[in-house]
Amino acid sequence: MSEYLSTLLPHVITYQEELIASIGETFQMVLIAGAFSVTLGLILGTILTVTDTGGLYENRWVFSVLDKIVNSIRSMPFVILIALLVTFTRWLVGTSLGIKGAIVPMVFGSVPFTTRMIYQSLIETDRGVIEAARAMGVSRLYIILHVIYPESRPGLIRALVTSIISLIGLSAMAGTVGGGGLGSFAIRYGYTRYWQDITVVTVIILLIIINIIQSIGNHLAARATK
Amino acid sequence: MIELVGLNKTFHTAAGEVAALKDVSLKVDKGDIYGVVGFSGAGKSTLIRCVNLLEKPDSGSVKIDGREITAYGEKQLAKEREGIGMIFQHFNLLRNKTVFENVAFPLRYARKNRKEIEKRVGELLELVDLSDKTSAYPSQLSGGQKQRVAIARALAMDPKILLSDEATSALDPQTTESILQLLKKLNEQLGLTILLITHEMDVVRRVCNKVAVMEKGSIVESGDTFRLFTQPQSDITRRFVDSLFRSEAVGEVLYEPDGAPRFQQGRLFHLLFVGDRATDPHIARAIRDYRTDISIIFGNIEMVQGKPIGSLYVLIDGQEADIDGAIEYFRREGIRATEIDTRGGDDL
């Protein structure tokens, strides 16, 4: 069996320890960047929702400025964003390389996307329900926390899953410019040395991870829908 | 209880300015079930939203129990709103929360303790007859049940006033009836003052003791429901009252399926009999004393505030002078007689 594997996937077997370490790195990058980007995305998405026309804290000015910033960053190709952020990343975490160096641009790359997704699910909240709560004399902050968030739970779960999956994509791209993780592993061995087995196995592992996350997310979202 | 004076509200939309309220004044006394009726776009929704200031009027005064609330800050207004329950056409329940949690929502906000909440929600669900649905989600309920949950929720903080924004408009006739009965019960048992808006005269007839008719942002007529039904002053009110007595059957009797009038002779009248007038033999007298032939096309009786109003569509044939005489006679007797043009055909 192991002989057969080593003929089929010679380099994967040789570098298996590094491969496993890369998977760990990818998870590390995605989780840390994910935590930041979901937190920031929730805050910014909430601000967009409540300042939008007819919102609880309607404010055209805040809304359009934030909306434009989010859209501009979102439309920037990620590789360019990494390059653009090099100095900032060095200043913030001391290096632009490795996991640490990758996390900063990953957060920047995914916050606008996450913000937009969260905004879209929050803004779906039935205006009537918000109005009913207002008619009861409930404060606006309480409405955000106890009406808008719980009512948007399925949408928020989907937004979370989609943004984590997009972060896996970003982590692979960050790998190409000196970050760690599966992306970097595939580039270093699979692409530059043309060891196809490494590329193929990396892709399969990524597919499995993404599918598992997506299924868990779908399941949770379905359960949250009443 | 509720006093609105000189309310004005104009919306600035992309299509231009829309005057939703034009100098509207309204007084609702304690214990009233006050109906505001009007076609869509008449400004009723804006009016009812001004009572708890979900909509801020451009000018005018809103007094609740004598307190002028238009100048209130957010905190004070929130406190005032606790005393004013509101229910809506689309119920506006929290989808992801159970019936219990929906009703508990305002109580949790008011930081009541767990025991108090359980007790109060139990009482409220019993009041609206939904004790068996405590742990159901709104999606598992029928429209009528959802509205009951919404009513229980609106009553949680023990308000003195209930605002009802087209609360029965999304419901079928039977369910509408049961919700209206519930509102009436709450009015009688809890002394709840209710202000409701609707586009259905039938709702007004069933529960309201007072009514105001709105058109294009103004109140054109208001007062005691029975009086308004029997002595409508304006065209729009007449249209609303007639909507109650109009029947498809009248048209079917009058016209052939191809639209040709079935009766070539005679004039069609709509007669409204009020209260004790309904029992006198007016038709017989009109036939005898005025030598007219009267055929009854369609008739029904509606109860308004427990008093009967009879409606008859009759075709009167005879000499012009005799027909006029008969109509004169009806009018002298306090019967409202309106001629309907049968040749035009599109009135029915």
Largest sheet of chain B: 6 strands, mixed
What is the SS-derived class of chain A?
mainly alpha
Query: What is the CATH topology classification name of the largest domain in chain B?
Result: Rossmann fold
Q: Whole-number radius of gyration of chain A?
A: 21 Å
Fraction of residues in β-strands of chain A:
under 5%
Kindly report the oligomeric state of this protein.
Answer: heterodimer
Question: Can I get a quick summary?
Answer:
The complex is a heterodimer of chains A (226) and B (348). With 226 residues, chain A is mostly helical. Chain A contains eleven helices and no strands.
Task: Give a structural overview.
The complex is a heterodimer of chains A (226) and B (348). With 226 residues, chain A is mainly alpha-helical. Helix content of chain A is 84%, strand content 0%. Chain A has one domain: MetI-like (MetI-like fold, Orthogonal Bundle). Chain A has helices at 2-8, 10-14, 16-51, 60-74, 78-93, 98-123, 127-135, 140-151, 153-176, 181-191, 196-224. Chain A is elongated and about 70 Å long. In chain A, α3 packs across α9, α6 (98-123) packs antiparallel against α9 (153-176) and α9 (153-176) packs parallel to α10. Chain A has eleven helices and no strands. Chain B is of the alpha/beta class and 348 residues long. Chain B folds into two domains: 2-232, P-loop containing nucleotide triphosphate hydrolases (Rossmann fold); 246-340, ACT domain (Alpha-Beta Plaits), CATH 3.30.70.260. Helix content of chain B is 36%, strand content 30%. Chain B is built from twelve helices and 14 strands. Chain B has helices at 44-51, 74-82, 99-109, 114-127, 143-155, 173-190, 201-207, 225-230, 235-245, 248-254, 282-290, 320-332; strands at residues 2-13, 16-28, 33-37, 59-64, 67-68, 84-88, 161-165, 193-198, 210-215, 218-224, 267-274, 293-304, 307-317, 336-340. In chain B, β4 (59-64) and β5 form a beta hairpin. Classes of the chains: A mainly alpha (226), B alpha/beta (348). At the A-B interface, α7 and α8 of A face α2, β6, α3 and α5 of B.
